[in-house]
Amino acid sequence: MRPDVRAARPSEAEAVLETICAAFDLDVDAARPIFYADPYYDLSHKRVLALPNVGIVSCLTVVPTLLRIGGIAVPAAGVAGVATHPAFQRQGFAATLLAATLPALWEELGYPLSFLHPISAPFYRRLGWEMASSILPWSAVPSSLPRYAESDFVRPATSSDWPAIAALHTELTHSATGTCLRDSRRWQLVRMDVPGREAFVYEDAAGMSGYVVWERGETLGVMEMLGRTAPARRGLASFLARQPEPVVHWASSAAHLGAFGFSSANKRPEPDIMVRPVSLQGILEALHTAHFGPILAENAASLTFLVTDGLCPENARPLRVTPTGVELGSATDRSWLRADIQTLGPLLMGFRLPSEAQGSGLLTTDSPETLMLADRLLPLRSPYVAPLDQS
Ligand SMILES: CC(C)(COP(=O)(O)OP(=O)(O)OC[C@H]1O[C@@H](n2cnc3c(N)ncnc32)[C@H](O)[C@@H]1OP(=O)(O)O)[C@@H](O)C(=O)NCCC(=O)NCCS
Q1: Do 258 and 147 share a structural domain?
Q2: Is the pTM of this model over 0.85?
Q3: 23 lines ligand 1 (CB under 6 A)
Q4: 81 in ligand 1 pocket by Cβ < 6 Å?
Q5: How would you list the strands of the sheet with 197-204, edge to edge?
Q6: Would the CB of 36 count as within 6 Å of ligand 1?
Q7: Ligand 1: centre distance to CA 81 (Å)
Q8: How many domains does the chain have?
Q9: Whose CA is nearest to atom 12 of ligand 1?
Q10: Ligand 1 mean position, distance from CA 192 (Å)
Q11: Which of 14, 67, 117, 196 could form a disulfide with 215 if both were Cys (CB 3.0 to 4.6 A apart)?
């Protein structure tokens, strides 16, 4: 049976819903309104694997995202809801769906990069995804947190606060790698009526300068907390101290935790999202003007990427990055870097340095000078993808 992998057709919306519900063990009638009300609902972004005489057995959803690398927003496909009907699992259908969807992410939908939160890293690694961000788990007993008078300036967010919250998010995250440029659909999801989800803002005489989104359950789970000023950060942190839950959790970046004075000294970072370049040329071009071009011009240098990729053959063409742009290179170019696509994803995100990958035997260059240049072009950037951008 030769599977057909493509975008879902309008007549297949219910079959997609049924496949998702069967795989995730959800009630179809309860899930239906949520499925159709999803602000990102778009059948061109629901990819399916259909078998002749059977229909859809496997599907996934592509979530449109602009993921920042440095200050540059790169169009990225968030891959979510990968699902195979239980009757067809462990026969390679999800792997086939993902492998055939990869080239389409660029050719049909225009995303040069893809990312996902993996259920099983080895499964996605076989298809070229690799870990490219981490989170630090932090937790505390609320009553043990310091208390400041500024917590009096924290109040529940109202609908009129959301434009200012969105502007504050953009202002405070615009240069951080892994943050997403949120559109109104993303904010609609953030504000969604999830059980226990609440938002509060810090507002003093100078205006609104901080917010927190959390989910109450047996414990208090902070989803996101940002403050522009020290009083806002003190106010929000000590507002946590006033909550009744026995424990507050926040898995975040060292930078976010540090800004609120929360120590993550004894915590080990946990792997979080995986990335996979879909069009290397597309990513290199997106990063060229603001980043690669000036560094290469300063060094009067170029760098050719010699990459292996079994699923997206375009990535296996030599690509030369010069001070003026990205062009087809040649295997005989002088300054080159050789790696497989899986190694390259974390380097492009700034999760690892090229020299570190070389030390692990995953990358070679023609000379130590080229390796130094590669480290300048692909510096460490501590990527962190906020939980509110991951679903
Ligand atoms: C995960 C899932 C999509 C895999 O679909 P599939 O068609 O069976 O996948 P394939 O046959 O191509 O590959 C199977 C591989 O998936 C991985 N896998 C499947 N189920 C898994 C699970 N529950 N936990 C971890 N890994 C799992 C394994 O690596 C497995 O390889 P193995 O059989 O060699 O151990 C399917 O099991 C499913 O729909 N699960 C429920 C929904 C879900 O959790 N989706 C993923 C999160 S978005």
Answers
A1: yes
A2: yes
A3: yes
A4: yes
A5: 154-156, 197-204, 207-216, 220-227, 248-252, 134-140, 270-271
A6: no
A7: 11
A8: 3
A9: 92
A10: 28
A11: 196
Is the CB of 268 within 6 Å of ligand 1?
no
Q: Examine the domain organization and report whether 174 and 263 are in the same domain.
A: yes
Q: Flag whether 123 is in a domain.
A: no
What are the pLDDT tens digits along the chain (391 aa)?
689 999 999 999 999 999 999 999 999 999 999 999 999 999 999 999 999 999 999 999 999 999 999 999 999 999 999 999 999 999 999 999 999 999 999 999 999 999 999 989 999 999 999 999 999 999 999 999 999 999 999 999 999 999 999 999 999 999 999 999 999 999 999 998 888 999 999 999 999 999 999 999 999 999 999 999 999 999 999 999 999 999 999 999 999 999 999 987 788 999 999 999 999 999 999 999 999 999 999 999 999 999 999 999 999 999 999 999 999 999 999 999 999 999 999 999 999 999 999 999 999 999 999 999 999 999 999 999 999 998 7
Whether 295 maps to a domain, the answer reads: yes
Q: What is the CATH number of the domain that holds 350?
A: 3.30.1050.10
Q: CB of 120 closer than 6 A to ligand 1?
A: yes
Q: How far is the CA of 90 from the centre of ligand 1 (A)?
A: 7
Structural domain boundaries, residue 308: 276-377
